[in-house]
Amino acid sequence: xxxxxxxxxxxSGEAKQAMDFYKGVFGGNLSVHTYGDFGSEAPPGYSxxxxxxxxxxxxxxxxxxxxxxxxxxxxxxxxxxxxxxxxDAGELRGYWEKLSDGGNVQVPLEKxxxxxxxxxxxxxxxxxxxxxxxxxx
Length: 137
Description:
Helices cover 18% and strands 39% of the residues. By secondary structure, the chain is an alpha+beta fold.
């Protein structure tokens, strides 16, 4: 899989409804994973909240979203990030180093409970980024 760049939108409990709506608008295949899908690691009260969802359309559009995890403020207008994902670890780590340089790292780029390497940062211009390296490919 080549690296991809796409929007990632955060919600406060209505991610599933939003993604169902976007699927109705754009069509395509929707995958949804709740915090509860990961069993005992789900934060209290979050088992039915969306940890990650992705809509891929036949036109080549990709939209991702999730419900904010506990402790992260939800503020409309600041509820998006640009996501970089793929299997080319060298390429994606290079993007991460450049994007996080001079910015603010919220989640260090490291192995996560779903098996991929993931990190979140805000670049020096205030743009939020997510980098996910698929190591299961």
